[in-house]
Write a structure and sequence with these properties.
Elements lengths: L6 E4 L5 E4 L6 H14 L5 E4 L10 H18 L7 E3 L3 H9 L8 H10 L2 H7 L4 H7 L4 H16 L4 H6 L4 E4 L4 E4 L15 H4 L16 E4 L17 E3 L11 E5 L5 E6 L2
Parallel strand pairs: 1-5, 2-3, 3-4, 6-7, 7-8
Antiparallel strand pairs: 2-9, 5-6, 9-10
């Protein structure tokens, strides 16, 4: 995949809707989904900022609901495919790596680390046992390959799920290049094309940046790891965070922005 295909430029837009990390909170997302279906306009754009799956018990069901929202909006309006964007979050990154576990030199350690970060909930939602793959992790490449193949088949059995994981983007930005959308952060000393995995793993002190990043006056992200929500979203801050710690928080945050980086609205599910 060429680097350009990792990014989406949002053109001819009135409003840009952005949804922060959902983490499989289906009930909370359903309230946001209903609001969007009632208020979205033909010239609007919608971005999911990653971490749709993971941590919660309903990863598969939540992803199906997200895909259903896309289909409903695409059928209601004359939208281009790039009008609805899905970004890669840490949960999607880990799950994609899990599907290649047979290639890992240390599968047991990788599994333990992933499960500590909520990936176990995702495989369970697809009908697989955490204990089963833990026991297989030490049994060799062939057995692990059989397990990942079965998991892949289960994903394929759910309409749109495979396509979701294959088409995740690294970042999106308005055609004015005044507002940037990412999962977690950027290294402001590097260009977008050289960020590597900073988009979903973050970068030290990103929350505290005070100045625009290149031409971007606003950076909207869907996740932050700080347990103390020190950063307050305001019209004067460069960084706008659509997520609230702790991870046990079930609310899903959404924002509406202009192509020039203005905040029109910030809200969460009721």
């Amino acid at each position: 995949m060429d680097k350009a295909s990792n990014f989406v430029e949002l053109k001819e837009t009135s409003k840009i809707w952005a949804i922060g990390s959902i983490h499989s909170n289906l009930k909370s997302f359903s309230a946001i989904k209903k609001y969007i279906l009632n208020h979205f306009k033909n010239s609007d754009k919608l971005i999911f900022l990653g971490n749709v799956i993971g941590l919660g018990d309903k990863s598969k069901e939540t992803l199906s609901s997200v895909i259903d929202l896309r289909l409903k909006l695409m059928s209601k309006f004359t939208l281009k495919p790039e009008s609805i964007v899905f970004l890669r979050g840490a949960q999607e990154e880990m799950f994609s790596k899990l599907l290649q576990l047979q290639l890992a030199p240390n599968p047991i350690e990788i599994l333990e680390w992933m499960f500590e970060h909520g990936v176990n909930k995702t495989i369970e939602s697809y009908g697989f046992s955490e204990n089963e793959i833990k026991s297989l992790a030490s049994s060799g490449t062939i057995n692990i390959s059989k397990w990942t193949s079965s998991l892949n088949k289960s994903i394929q059995d759910n309409p749109g799920h495979t396509e979701y994981f294959l088409n995740l983007k690294h970042a999106a930005y308005s055609h004015t290049k005044k507002i940037l959308f990412v999962n977690r952060g950027v290294d402001i000393t590097r260009p977008l094309s050289a960020q590597n995995d900073c988009f979903w793993w973050g970068f030290q002190n990103f929350s505290t940046i005070q100045n625009p990043y290149n031409t971007f006056l606003r950076i909207v992200r869907g996740y932050e790891s700080e347990h103390l929500n020190k950063s307050q979203n305001s019209k004067n801050n460069v960084v706008c965070t659509l997520f609230k710690q702790p991870l046990s928080n079930k609310n899903v945050l959404c924002g509406i922005f202009t192509e020039n980086g203005e905040i029109l609205d910030l809200f969460e599910n009721n």
